[in-house]
Every structure is written in C-alpha cells, then in structure tokens.
C-alpha cells in the first residue's frame, strides 16, 4: 500500500539514503560519500584507429597496424578496437549542414561512415577472430573478449538523435574520439590509446604549421586553458577527462611508425601521455 511521505506518494519498504531528498540534496550527499565505481573490465585496452590519420591512407598504413594488433592478440593482450570516420565523415557533415540538418541528424549521418571502416577492418582480421560489434552488442563485449575474439566497432557514441547541440554550430561535439573514451571510462579499462599519424600534442597543427612545437608532458586542463583551436583528439575528450573516475589519462601513438602500437599495448612508454590535470 502506498502512503504519503513529505507530501509525496511513497511505497513502504523502499526507504534508502535518498528518501525524501531533492535533487540538489542528493548531489550534495553523493559528493560527501564519493565511493569509487566498479571497474567493469580493468584488464582490457581500448584502442581508436583514426579515420583520416590512418584509414584514409589505405593499405600502406592499415596493414602494418593490423599485424601489430594480431601480434598483441597472440600474446594474450585483450583489446576493443574503435574506428573513426575520416574524410568521408567530414563530407557527410558538410552535406548535412548544407541541407540544414539539425545536430542529432548530423550525428546519425556521420555515424554511418565509421561503421563502414569498422566492417573493413573486421573482414581483414576475420580469420583471426575479429567480430563486428554494434551498439546492441554492448553487453556481449565481455563474452567476445573472453572467447578470444577481437571486437571491432564504430567509435561514434550511440547518441544519434539525442546528441545535444554544441555551443557553436551544429556539428556534433561527441564524435569517434569521444565515443571510445567514454567506453574506456565505463569499463575502467587498463588504458585508452589513440592510433594517429602524429607523435603527440603540438602547439598548433603540425600539418599546417611546420613551426609547431611538440608539447612535453601535455596536461588536458592546460590544453583547454591555452585557447588552442584544434587538438590531436576532440576537445570534448579533454573536458570529459576532468570529471573522470577511471580514465584520467590517454595515450596518443603514431601508428605510422612500426612497432609503436604493439609497444603501447605491452605497456611501454611510447607516444604522448596526456594527463587530466597536473596532479594525475
């Protein structure tokens, strides 16, 4: 039987720490009892293969990285591989903007391209146990990993029509860099590795500005405060890192340099380590 409690309908027997609290009171209570969340799969790596930086370069760039990934699998290293969309995704965004599509529609449209790239990678590694993992397969990822599969998926988060509008423009701020990062944070993964075509974080885009300097020991909070326009990863990833419980650092490796990906998966100090703050 329901009863009234503090002016609200209440069912006896379900009293808890939040009973009768307002939303503000619940948030204040939680901040005082900040227990760590469970690390769902702390022994796996989350990888992101760049679309424009790697996939768009074709066989010459992709095949050597595949060889390193398969070598890691043979060593018993478990990982989930997310994939970016690259230039074709940018073309889709440009067309969507020209047609007046809202942010949610752009997210849905842009998300189709990394799926194509993921399917190609899955076929290339199918004989070694690669399996295409879609959003609906999320709960099956532990099963895939524990049976020796290599889950490959789009890096795009499944927000689609629910993607919130950015502060400027309509292009979704949560794209493939963000999607894999959020996956790493949820799983409490061993680490988050971005496979790109640069050695780390620069003071400017080195492809456009040859005088750009490589930043030693980059810190996400400093990068956000610098006013720099573009980073090696999506800006929203650096923002998410500030509030993360588990993935408070990410690593960027140049996948075009032989051995970098395998070394990173072995836990070696290659590429650039980006910390959330100076205290991390």
Assign the CATH topology. Answer: Carbamate kinase
| Major β-sheet strand ordering | 5-6-4-3-7-8-9
- Name the CATH homologous superfamily: Acetylglutamate kinase-like
Helix-residue proportion: 25-40%
| Whole-number mean pLDDT | 92
Cα separation of the termini: 50 Å
The rounded Rg comes to 21 Å
> The biggest beta sheet, please?
7 strands, mixed
DSSP summary, beta strand count = 9
Q: Could you characterize the architecture of this molecule?
A:
With 280 residues, the chain is of the alpha/beta class. It has one domain: Acetylglutamate kinase-like (Carbamate kinase), CATH 3.40.1160. The protein is 34% helix and 14% strand. It is built from ten helices and nine strands. The chain has helices at 23-32, 59-74, 87-98, 103-110, 112-124, 141-146, 176-187, 220-225, 235-241, 260-265, and strands at residues 3-5, 8-10, 45-49, 79-83, 130-132, 150-154, 191-196, 249-254, 272-275. It has a seven-stranded mixed sheet, with helices on both faces. It has a two-stranded antiparallel ribbon with strand order 1-2. The mean pLDDT is 92.
